[in-house]
Amino acid sequence: MDSIVDLRSDTITRPTPEMRAILSDAEVGDDVLGDDPTVHRLQERMAALTGKEAALFVPSGSMANLCAIRSATEPGDEIIADATTHCYHYETAAPFAVAGCSMRFVDGRHGVFTARDVEAALRPRASHFPFSRMVVVENTNNRGGGTVWPLETIADIRTVADQNGLHVHIDGARLWNACIATGKKPADYARYADSVSMCFSKGLGAPVGSIVAGTREFVTRAHRFRKMFGGAMRQAGILAAAAIHAVEHHYERLIEDHRNARTFAEGIAEIPGIKLDPKNVPTNIVIFEVDERHGSAAEFGQRLEAAGVRTLATGPTTLRAVTHLDVNRAAVERAVEIVRDQCASRTVSG
Ligand code: TLP
Q1: Residue 90 CA to ligand 1 centre (angstroms)
Q2: Ligand 1 close to Cβ of residue 173 (< 6 A)
Q3: What range defines the domain where residue 266 resides?
Q4: What pLDDT digit, counting tens, does each position of 162-178 carry?
Q5: Which residue of 21, 223, 264, 265 has the lowest C-beta tally within 10 Å?
């Protein structure tokens, strides 16, 4: 077992031996020429799982979002999203730089906003303004702390979107986690969206890849943009095989990650100088605050790392810990002890 408990992200998982074995037997072809049977199999499965006409395998969640954004908009359009949204914070401004869109932010609660917020963010149809064209719903929401969107809220946003000609995209990098937390299926959420992306390389533990799904027309457009963005891959079947294996074997077990996240949250919530409400940890992401006695989040994170727990500072006073396939309950309990020891030593030494 690794001596470091790495809670930086659920993206850090390494393929299991079973997954590696599957890859070596995967049937492949040149997917740029449309010849890879395993990629086709994955795309068909994902279209079915999301209840969409078609799906496209892409190298990353960022490319899935960008393909969706570029396919649904024209330069000069505006995207409405929560202020926490991943495609704004962590995708190198691609919606602006590559798709030529502006973004208008709403202040949701832990990343979840309402149809009223969307209405309030709409631009009037006058020559001064960008066209409000798209809404991004990030489910689960990352910076909000793995928040799960209520289905009715997305349904209400759909209604407003229909009234105003908006494309609804679900950034479902972790829609798997939302489904496991609620007992719903990807299609239950996706039916209110025009497009949905889902990642295989986060909680599911595959090495690479995401899917973006929608109507056949939308996916045809996304396919063209994937090529433009350099994301068309050749014998991608070895990656698609890992993704299929991940969906078949690692989806249901996400409940363990959710339990482990809750254990971690409850353990550290009791430590003086650490602030979080474990009730706000519905899935596998724990966002917590440290007060000044522990230094800045970056300093605190460095001390934790030296002591054996890796987290990510997400702001001046906030850190993130994410549970995943490569950390079990014992490791998470060890992480709580390490955080406790670090806080105690700091308090004692001043
Ligand atoms: N998130 C990563 C980092 O980029 C922050 C992480 O460690 O959580 N949508 C959401 C909601 C995401 O959390 C991520 C990745 C993406 C899209 C992008 O996926 P990749 O990293 O595959 O481009």
Answers
A1: 7
A2: yes
A3: 253-349
A4: 999 999 999 999 999 99
A5: 21
